[in-house]
UniProtKB/TrEMBL annotation:
Entry-linked InterPro entries: B3_DNA-bd (IPR003340), DNA-bd_pseudobarrel_sf (IPR015300), DUF707 (IPR007877)
Source organism: Anisodus tanguticus
Domain TF-B3: residue ranges: 1-50
UniProt keyword terms in alphabetical order: DNA-binding, Membrane, Nucleus, Transcription, Transcription regulation, Transmembrane, Transmembrane helix
Domain of life: Eukaryota
Entry's localization field: Nucleus
Record field: transmembrane: 62-80
Protein name: TF-B3 domain-containing protein
Gene Ontology CC terms, in alphabetical order: nucleus
Lineage: Eukaryota, Viridiplantae, Streptophyta, Embryophyta, Tracheophyta
Length: 439
C-alpha cells in the first residue's frame, strides 16, 4: 500500500482473489487507486488493468471493507492477548459478534476458555477470601466471622447479648421421655445441679404438660413422636452443637436415682480419667451384664474377673471390660465427637453400640503412653442407680400378626444389633484391604 497523494490510496493485487464463491476479474499485478472521502473509500481508476479487470464500485467497496476488517482484527489480536481480553471481561457473547467467531464451535470454545481464565484469576486474586481451613462451605468467609460451634444456652429477646448469660452450664443431660414417667424424670432432674443444661426428647408429642415443674421452664424440649434417644442424639447432639459441655449424659427415663449425685459423679469421672462411663446398677433389679453391676469395694471399676466359661474372648474387651450399657452412658466431649459419627442414621435403637464404644478411646499403638481403652471406660460404683425396666417406649410399637407391640420393637432391636455388627466388620475389612493391611 502506497500513499503518494493526499487522500489517495493505492492497492497492488499480489494474490488471487475469490469472494463468496464467485470468481473475481481482479488479476494479480493490477493496481487500483482509491480516494478516501467523508462518505467512505471510493475507487477512482485501475491504473494497470486488463480490459476485463475493472469491477463495479459496489464490489470494490466490499473488497476494501473486508480488507480493512481483517487488518483491524490482526491489530486487535496483537495488541490485546487472551489474558487482556479476560481482564476486560470480554465474554463469548461479545466475541461472537465479530465475523471471525461466527462458527458455533468457536463460540463455545471461547466461552469455556474465558470461564476457565476467570476461575484461575479468582483463585489467585488476593482480594478474594478463600480459607481452606474453615469448615466446609465457609471457605469464602474470613475466619474471624466463622462460628462453627454452638450450645443450648437460652438467651433473652432484649438487652445486650454479652449480658444474656449469668451462668454457662458445663454439662448436658438428656432424657428421652413420655408423660407417664414425668414424676420419675422430675426426681432425676433434681439430681443434676444448675451446672447442667436439661434437654428433654419427647417421644409422645406432649411437652406443655411438663410446665408444672419449675425446672421445665429452663429446659430445652424437642418433640418427635415414637422416636428413640439415639434417633434424637444423631440429629440434635452433633458434636459442634454440644461442644460447650465437658460431659454429655444420654439417659433413659426409667432410672431410679435415690443414690446418685451428679456433682459427685463428675468428680469421680475426672479423678479416674474415664472418657465413657455409667453409674453402677443396683444388683437387685434390672441387670443384664456383669460388667455394669455395682461393686461395693471401691469408687469405680473398669473390668471384671472373668469366671470360667464366661464367654469373654479377651478380658480387656467387651463385655468384660471397656464396656458400659446404652441405658445411662456419660461421654466426655472428645469421646462423644467420635461416638456420634458411629451412630447409624437408620439404626435407631442403638443395640450393639455399647460393644463398639471402645473404638473411640483406643490408643493408636501398644507402645503409646496413653491409657488403653479398658482404662478409660468404666462403671462408677460410688454413685449408683436402679434400672426399673419400664417398657414405656417399647409399648409405642405396633401390634401385628397377633404379636404384642413390644415384641415387634424387640425384634427390631435384635435385627439392628446384627446389622450394626456387620457394618462395623465390613467397614474395617474394607479399610484394611484398601490400605494393603493384613490385620
Amino acid at each position: 500500500m502506497k500513499n503518494e497523494d493526499h487522500g489517495l490510496v493505492y492497492f497492488v493485487i499480489t494474490r488471487g482473489w475469490r469472494q463468496f464463491g464467485e470468481a473475481n476479474d481482479v488479476q494479480v499485478g493490477d493496481t487500483y487507486k482509491f480516494e478516501l472521502t467523508d462518505n467512505g473509500t471510493l475507487p477512482m481508476a485501475c491504473l494497470h488493468c486488463d480490459s476485463n479487470s475493472f469491477k463495479s464500485a459496489e464490489t470494490m467497496r466490499l473488497i476494501v471493507s473486508i480488507g480493512c476488517g481483517v487488518m483491524f482484527g490482526l491489530f486487535i489480536g496483537i495488541s490485546f492477548p487472551t489474558t487482556s481480553l479476560t481482564k476486560l471481561n470480554l465474554t463469548a457473547s461479545l466475541v461472537s459478534n465479530f465475523p471471525i467467531a461466527r462458527d458455533k464451535n468457536n463460540v463455545v470454545s471461547a466461552q469455556n476458555h474465558t470461564d476457565s481464565s476467570i476461575k484461575n484469576q479468582d483463585a489467585t486474586d488476593q482480594s478474594k477470601i478463600w480459607v481452606p481451613s474453615n469448615p466446609r462451605g465457609a471457605e469464602r468467609l474470613p475466619p474471624g466471622i466463622v462460628s462453627s460451634e454452638s450450645d443450648y444456652y437460652l438467651r433473652r429477646l432484649w438487652g445486650n447479648p454479652s449480658e444474656d448469660l449469668s451462668n454457662k452450664p458445663k454439662f448436658l443431660v438428656t432424657f428421652t421421655v413420655g408423660l407417664k414417667q414425668k414424676h420419675n424424670i422430675d426426681a432425676a432432674v433434681k439430681k443434676f445441679s444448675d451446672d447442667f443444661t436439661i434437654l428433654l426428647f419427647h417421644y409422645d408429642g406432649k411437652t406443655t404438660e411438663w410446665d408444672e415443674f419449675e425446672w421445665s421452664q429452663r429446659a430445652i424440649h424437642v418433640s418427635a413422636r415414637k422416636q428413640t434417644k439415639w434417633w434424637y442424639a444423631k440429629r440434635f447432639l452433633h458434636p459442634d452443637i454440644v461442644s460447650a459441655y465437658d460431659y454429655i449424659f444420654i439417659w433413659d427415663e426409667d432410672l431410679g436415682v435415690e443414690n446418685f449425685d451428679a456433682k459427685e459423679y463428675i468428680k469421680l469421672v475426672k479423678k479416674h480419667g474415664l472418657e465413657i462411663s455409667q453409674p453402677g446398677l443396683d444388683p437387685r433389679k434390672g441387670t443384664t451384664w456383669p460388667m455394669t453391676i455395682r461393686r461395693g469395694d471401691g469408687e469405680v471399676h473398669t473390668l471384671i474377673e472373668e469366671k470360667p466359661g464366661g464367654g469373654c474372648s479377651d478380658p480387656h474387651l467387651p463385655p468384660c471390660a471397656a464396656f458400659v450399657e446404652i441405658m445411662a452412658p456419660a461421654f466426655s466431649r472428645d469421646a462423644w465427637r467420635c461416638v456420634w459419627h458411629m451412630i447409624q442414621n437408620d439404626l435407631i435403637h442403638g443395640w450393639g453400640l455399647d460393644f463398639a464404644l471402645h473404638k473411640c478411646v483406643e490408643a493408636l499403638s501398644v507402645h503409646s503412653l496413653l491409657k488403653p481403652a479398658h482404662e478409660k471406660i468404666g462403671v462408677v460404683d460410688a454413685q449408683w442407680i436402679v434400672h426399673q425396666s419400664v417398657p414405656s417406649l417399647g409399648n409405642e410399637g405396633q401390634a401385628k400378626d397377633g404379636k404384642a407391640a413390644w415384641k415387634g420393637v424387640r425384634e427390631r432391636c435384635e435385627k439392628e444389633w446384627s446389622m450394626f455388627q456387620s457394618r462395623v466388620e465390613n467397614a474395617e475389612k474394607a479399610y484394611y484391604k484398601s490400605n494393603g493391611i493384613d490385620p
